[in-house]
Amino acid sequence: MKNTYFDLIDQSYYFPQEGFDLKNGNLTFHGISLKHLIKKYGTPFRFIYLPKIGDQIKKARNLFNRAIKKQNYKGKYNFCYCTKCNHFSHVVSEALKHNVNLETSSSFDIDLILSLLSEKKIDKKRIIICNGYKTTEYLQKIVSIQKMGFSNIIVVLDSKSELEKLLSVSEDQIIKIGMRMAINEEPQSAYYTSRLGIRQNEIINFFKTNIKGNKKVELKMLHFFVDSGIKDSPYYWGEFQKALKTYIDLKKESQTLDSFNLGGGFPIRNNLGFAYDYEYMINEIVINIKEACTNSKVPEPNIYTEFGKYTVGESGAIIFEVLEQKHQNDTEIWYIINNSLMNTIPDAWSIHEKFILLPINKWDNEYSRVNIGGISCDHSDYYNSEDLNQEVFLPTYSKEDKEPLYLGFFHTGAYQDAISGYGGIKHCLIPSPKHVIIDRDDKGNIVDYVYRNEQSFEDMFKLLGYNK
Prior knowledge:
Elements: H1 5-12, E1 20-23, E2 26-29, E3 32-33, H2 34-41, E4 45-49, H3 51-70, E5 77-82, H4 89-96, E6 101-104, H5 107-118, E7 128-130, H6 136-148, E8 153-157, H7 161-169, E9 175-180, H8 200-211, E10 217-223, H9 234-251, E11 259-261, H10 278-296, E12 302-307, H11 309-312, E13 316-327, E14 333-337, H12 341-344, H13 346-350, E15 356-359, E16 367-369, E17 371-373, E18 382-383, E19 393-395, E20 406-410, H14 416-420, E21 434-440, E22 446-452, H15 457-464
Parallel strand pairs: 4-21, 5-6, 5-12, 6-7, 7-8, 8-9, 9-10, 10-11, 11-12, 14-17
Antiparallel strand pairs: 1-2, 2-3, 4-13, 13-14, 13-20, 15-20, 16-19, 17-18, 21-22
């Protein structure tokens, strides 16, 4: 009896499933033929499927608004896109088509805001949440765009010292501010309390001493973010309840406070067996806020989220070709791909992030446990376990096969380009792969094009100072 790779997937997961299906024995992604893209563009290449971004935004917004209506909640929901997750123009522009607000993290993000304004992709009424450590340059740029007429900027204080720095550059403007509450990390963390934000037991006193009665600032928001994500766990709900209590205590002192910011943290699918009840979690969040505010006799706040990875993560993928299979001992098989995993999906190497890994072709072949190796000379350039520490299984093939085996790492749309330094110099001078954009036109037809070709040696030598 032949045990094929398709049999393995069909027995292990519900398949086909959202985004993934087979056509003529080859993998498709949201109905797109990946074999067609391989023939058209060669490998390696990465791509972004833009319509998925809008789908994610609409999903979160609809679920929050339904929960608000169901619970007769008085506050409003505001979706913010976290720009640091993926700064590419085509990504931010796609998110803005769905009327998202923006969250910034650095000085250069303010230049990005100005660029979007000049392109008429935003107006000066857009809500801009300014997070991150505030250098003097960052604060000066924030104040400058408020002077230009941006009327909905909220500067979220990451530390108590930032207020003094902000006031020193704000001149006579009234600045809307928020405060970020530092959370206690999970027990297995290397440290106890996050370096980000102001300690919970200092927030109320800091407000009374430095903000209340200060005519140059107006408190609008309490912000908190759990780095491990929004999960149905005692740890998450414990930090959530502490932040909610702090909001209520602050609200009793501040007439202008009206917003509760959950930060980011919605997970994305990193395996075919992924299960997360978004609707349940959103309902529980809305119910908990409403009940706490009702019991304390304070108005229900507007709810903000700053989803970045959730917004763009599932839109991206990277496609490789297996160049060679190596049997290094009696049990280990290595599939060597035509790029570096450390360079193209650095989270897999640095923090052991897992992605959906699937073959594009050969689903009717038998399968075997394999290790995947990049072509760099680094020992760490490999991928050999799926989520929950499962082994990697892929189709087998012989040297006589006319068609190579192609592999795809899916849901890589968040952070990977920024961390790997897109367009810069990479480990072992292995070039950045070709970058393809995929969209649909008004009639639903696929439109794809090359955003940037694979780096040439001339490009890299110019960056390194050669051949001037």
